[in-house]
Specification:
Jelly Rolls, about 140 residues, 11 strands, mainly beta
Length: about 140
Amino acid sequence: MRKLFPLLFAAAALADAPPPPPSTEDALVAHVATAKFTESKTPNSPKGSQGATVGIDPNTKGATTYAKTPAGSGLPAHWHSFAEYTVFLAGKGTLMLDGKQHEVSPGSYVIIPAKMVHQFTCAAGADCLLLTRRGGPADYNFVQ
Protein backbone atom coordinates (compact mmCIF):
# COMPACT_ATOMS: atom_id res chain seq x y z
CA MET A 1 0.00 0.00 0.00
CA ARG A 2 2.85 2.39 0.80
CA LYS A 3 4.22 1.93 -2.71
CA LEU A 4 0.81 2.53 -4.22
CA PHE A 5 0.17 5.86 -2.43
CA PRO A 6 2.91 7.85 -4.29
CA LEU A 7 1.59 6.52 -7.60
CA LEU A 8 -1.97 7.54 -6.74
CA PHE A 9 -0.76 10.97 -5.59
CA ALA A 10 1.18 11.48 -8.86
CA ALA A 11 -1.81 10.35 -10.92
CA ALA A 12 -4.10 12.78 -9.09
CA ALA A 13 -1.64 15.64 -9.64
CA LEU A 14 -1.47 14.87 -13.36
CA ALA A 15 -5.25 14.71 -13.58
CA ASP A 16 -5.47 18.25 -12.12
CA ALA A 17 -2.75 19.64 -14.40
CA PRO A 18 -3.93 21.80 -17.31
CA PRO A 19 -3.59 20.20 -20.73
CA PRO A 20 -0.36 21.02 -22.56
CA PRO A 21 -0.57 23.81 -25.16
CA PRO A 22 -1.05 22.75 -28.77
CA SER A 23 1.96 22.05 -30.96
CA THR A 24 2.80 24.70 -33.55
CA GLU A 25 3.83 21.84 -35.83
CA ASP A 26 0.23 20.57 -36.10
CA ALA A 27 -2.71 22.20 -37.89
CA LEU A 28 -3.82 25.07 -35.68
CA VAL A 29 -6.34 27.89 -36.01
CA ALA A 30 -6.29 30.49 -33.23
CA HIS A 31 -8.38 33.60 -32.68
CA VAL A 32 -7.73 36.33 -30.15
CA ALA A 33 -11.43 36.42 -29.19
CA THR A 34 -11.19 32.89 -27.76
CA ALA A 35 -7.66 33.14 -26.33
CA LYS A 36 -7.31 32.41 -22.61
CA PHE A 37 -5.43 35.46 -21.33
CA THR A 38 -3.75 35.40 -17.91
CA GLU A 39 -1.74 37.96 -15.98
CA SER A 40 1.78 38.17 -17.45
CA LYS A 41 4.57 36.39 -15.62
CA THR A 42 7.22 38.25 -17.62
CA PRO A 43 9.74 39.92 -15.28
CA ASN A 44 9.35 43.73 -15.12
CA SER A 45 6.09 43.64 -17.08
CA PRO A 46 3.73 46.52 -16.30
CA LYS A 47 0.67 45.91 -14.14
CA GLY A 48 -2.21 44.78 -16.33
CA SER A 49 -0.03 43.03 -18.94
CA GLN A 50 -1.54 39.76 -20.11
CA GLY A 51 -0.52 36.83 -22.26
CA ALA A 52 -2.19 33.85 -23.93
CA THR A 53 -0.25 30.90 -25.33
CA VAL A 54 -1.30 29.82 -28.82
CA GLY A 55 1.10 26.90 -29.10
CA ILE A 56 4.61 25.59 -28.45
CA ASP A 57 7.10 24.33 -31.04
CA PRO A 58 7.93 20.80 -29.84
CA ASN A 59 11.43 20.97 -31.35
CA THR A 60 12.66 24.41 -30.23
CA LYS A 61 10.32 24.88 -27.23
CA GLY A 62 9.60 28.36 -28.59
CA ALA A 63 6.12 29.66 -27.82
CA THR A 64 3.67 31.53 -30.00
CA THR A 65 1.68 33.92 -27.81
CA TYR A 66 -0.71 36.83 -27.82
CA ALA A 67 0.38 39.66 -25.53
CA LYS A 68 -1.63 42.64 -24.28
CA THR A 69 0.34 45.67 -23.09
CA PRO A 70 -1.51 48.49 -21.29
CA ALA A 71 -1.50 51.88 -22.99
CA GLY A 72 1.40 54.10 -21.93
CA SER A 73 3.53 51.23 -20.63
CA GLY A 74 6.07 48.67 -21.80
CA LEU A 75 9.14 46.62 -20.96
CA PRO A 76 12.58 48.09 -20.27
CA ALA A 77 15.48 47.37 -22.61
CA HIS A 78 16.33 43.67 -22.79
CA TRP A 79 17.43 40.88 -25.11
CA HIS A 80 16.65 37.18 -25.62
CA SER A 81 18.82 34.16 -26.45
CA PHE A 82 16.59 33.32 -29.43
CA ALA A 83 14.99 35.39 -32.21
CA GLU A 84 11.43 36.61 -31.93
CA TYR A 85 8.96 37.39 -34.69
CA THR A 86 6.11 39.79 -33.86
CA VAL A 87 3.10 41.20 -35.68
CA PHE A 88 1.25 44.14 -34.11
CA LEU A 89 -2.50 43.61 -34.10
CA ALA A 90 -3.83 46.63 -32.18
CA GLY A 91 -2.60 49.87 -30.66
CA LYS A 92 0.44 51.94 -31.56
CA GLY A 93 3.84 52.13 -30.00
CA THR A 94 7.54 52.74 -30.23
CA LEU A 95 10.06 49.96 -30.64
CA MET A 96 13.70 50.66 -29.91
CA LEU A 97 15.64 48.06 -31.86
CA ASP A 98 19.40 48.03 -31.51
CA GLY A 99 19.35 51.74 -30.62
CA LYS A 100 17.07 52.79 -33.50
CA GLN A 101 13.51 54.02 -32.93
CA HIS A 102 10.65 52.55 -35.00
CA GLU A 103 6.97 53.50 -34.83
CA VAL A 104 4.73 50.42 -34.99
CA SER A 105 0.99 50.04 -35.56
CA PRO A 106 -1.47 47.33 -36.61
CA GLY A 107 0.06 45.32 -39.44
CA SER A 108 3.67 46.09 -38.50
CA TYR A 109 5.90 42.99 -38.53
CA VAL A 110 9.18 42.87 -36.63
CA ILE A 111 12.00 40.35 -36.57
CA ILE A 112 14.27 40.72 -33.56
CA PRO A 113 17.43 38.63 -33.91
CA ALA A 114 18.83 36.75 -30.93
CA LYS A 115 20.71 38.93 -28.42
CA MET A 116 19.60 42.22 -30.03
CA VAL A 117 18.69 44.79 -27.37
CA HIS A 118 15.14 46.07 -27.77
CA GLN A 119 12.46 47.94 -25.84
CA PHE A 120 8.76 48.39 -26.59
CA THR A 121 6.48 51.13 -25.27
CA CYS A 122 2.76 51.08 -26.04
CA ALA A 123 1.53 54.60 -26.82
CA ALA A 124 -1.08 56.32 -24.63
CA GLY A 125 -4.68 56.08 -25.71
CA ALA A 126 -5.15 52.36 -26.42
CA ASP A 127 -3.75 49.05 -25.23
CA CYS A 128 -1.47 47.16 -27.60
CA LEU A 129 -2.01 43.61 -28.82
CA LEU A 130 0.87 41.61 -30.28
CA LEU A 131 1.30 38.11 -31.67
CA THR A 132 4.82 36.74 -31.17
CA ARG A 133 6.55 33.54 -32.16
CA ARG A 134 9.83 32.75 -30.46
CA GLY A 135 12.73 30.81 -31.95
CA GLY A 136 13.36 29.06 -28.62
CA PRO A 137 12.43 29.23 -24.95
CA ALA A 138 11.75 32.75 -23.70
CA ASP A 139 14.35 34.36 -21.48
CA TYR A 140 14.67 38.02 -20.47
CA ASN A 141 18.08 39.60 -20.05
CA PHE A 142 17.53 43.19 -18.92
CA VAL A 143 20.05 45.89 -19.77
CA GLN A 144 21.14 48.25 -17.01
